[in-house]
Amino acid sequence: MSLTFEGRVVLVTGAGGGLGREYALAFAERGASVIVNDLGADTKGGGKSSAAADKVVEEIRAKGGKAVANYDSVEDGEKLIQSALDAFGRIDVLVNNAGILRDRSFARTSDLDWDLIHRVHLRGSFLVTRAAWNHMKNQKFGRIIMTTSGAGVYGNFGQANYSAAKLGLLGLANTLAIEGRKYNIYCNTIAPVAGSRLTETVMPPDLVASLKPEFVAPLVLWLCHEQCQENGALFETGAGWIAKLRWERSLGRTVRQKNQPMTPEAVRDQWDQICDFTDATKPTSLQESMMSIVSVLSQVESGGEVSGNPTAAAASSSGINPIEAVGTKLPPSSFSYTHIQCILYALGVGMSTKDPDHLRFLYEGHEDFVCLPSFGVIVAQSVLMEGGLTSVPGLNIDFTQVLHGEQYLELYKPLPTSGTLTSETTIADVLDKGSGAVILMDVKTFCGEELICFNQFSVFVVGAGGFGGKRSSDKAIAPLPPPQRAPDAVVIDSTSTDQAALYRLSGDWNPLHIDPSFAAMGGFQAPILHGLCSFGFAARHVLKQFADNDPSRFKAIKVRFAKPVMPGQSIQTEMWKEGNRIHIQCKVKETDAVVLTGAYVDLHGAAEASPEDPPQAGGLHSELVFAEIGRRIKDTGSELVKKVNAVFGWEITKDGKIAAQWTIDLKNGSGSLQKGPHSGKADVTITVSDEDFLEVVQGKLNPQKAFFSGKLKVRGNIMLSQKLEVILKDHAKL
Fold first, then answer.
1. Is the model's pTM score more than 0.85?
2. pLDDT digits over 280-312, tens only?
3. Whose CA is closest to 397, among 316, 301, 466?
4. Catalytic residue at 345?
5. Domain covering 322-603: architecture
């Protein structure tokens, strides 16, 4: 699908030639209304003319586009924006492109050389952007481009003034990206290499001719389109090549100890380690950068040894040893639950009786009562909630510093609505991320001997890195970016102010989600929503949008937790369908902050969704069910006898005739199953067709409705039929 800018108003500064002209023409060609700004000055900032801007406007109009000229200096920022408002009534996109050169070696740079460059490049971009800011803020949309240069990023001889201004623009853009994010104002920076009046002074003529501005414009248009979610990024581009830049930082070295002076000799002696970029980190925010400094203060005050990383002292004292930890199997854990826990979870992730489609997840008497697939994380989460990691050798960590980083869940069978499941946990890997450690835990959950689901918990331990481990693992199930196009579907769902209080009833009792004073200690203004609650919202959004709320079609989900949601905020789930994989991204609607990234849900195709296999050679579906019941009676018969204390006779019909008889004796000894009628007298005898029996077992047919409709006939003590759930739903669901 082609990118269009119909209805958008774009201001390009310095658009009378070179890159600016190319931007203006490209935006107009795709439907934008364009303000072509150019003072008409020479490359050193002298003179003034309307000819350059007028010529570009004429080109645009000749092709049927919409454009007006503006001849003001960027130092008159308000006038530029007013031109847009007067001509088109709004301002959506601002490309800060205007610039001049006054190249001098540093010793020869005058005050005027310095000031004029900063006035046009840095101050001019500031003034025009400030004039546009509130208009973009009020309309909840804006895209801003700042233009830096390789001279600003790397430095260049004879361009001290230009380099300083250009790097200043990058700092300005990074801050605007942070402040504008919640208003859907995104700001990015480009460092273009293209032939223009400015570059012809520093490049050979043949190179200037080859580096055409038209090879840069497509990047600018993409960054300014409403589909693009890039924000706060820096790109180098030229000749059709585009690359994203980021900062890299060595692990560093702490060169002082408590109550001892820090000396230049200590710096000299550790210089090689300070400058060693092996296992370098890549901080992306001031907060992440400051984390290391705070860690150093804590380390030094506690009398820690000098280390090669601010977190290394914590790592050494915690004794993280991947060789000991990886492969460790935790003691098996069991999770017993009834329909009550399934319903509580569904309410905790935002389901409501206001939506008729939700009733099958909320009412145990519904003929299609089922469990939400994402409940699979609840049955396995005891490894985190009950301190299972404390028993792992080589993982003596500070559990107050543990954050849930990523989650993967895969289902092999629809989850039963009640029962006892057993989970087995293995430490799959331990990774050294410099500022912390990542622990991968693989959890397999069984119903008896049958594998029901698999979870991979990925937790980040702040301050536990620097132990010399590897940074990546082929055992980690990786998140995936969404397609670079508009979402195929968007669902917005409001959380309640009590959402966290309700979700915690599913077993995550962390006070961070309920106690304001505890949340304040964690740096939050109020208790935050559980990440796995947002996970549940996203999972059910996909289930409804693309699988008709059919849990049997749900195969797997992967998410990365990026930021928290506050109870009461709205979760906006954006979805892209790629075959049976649905890529998802979740945001807080009110702030536009992305909370779940790299996420996707895998679905079974509609034809794959039915879990039963057809009977072979004219056999009965029920044969498989009774075989499973018999196996379960061998394992837990004594317990079932205590619960049920009755003998059930079964008559399974096919084509209106009795095809098989079974007796389930849960009254005598430790229970038994036999094919054929009971030698004595059954307390209750149930007659049902093979097909209807299977639907009852799978929860698709409510036994009461089957009885009243005549599909299920009962002789003997009818009240005992209430105990069918213990036999069928707990122990026979295939």
1. no
2. 777 777 766 665 665 566 556 555 443 444 433
3. 316
4. no
5. Roll (3.10)
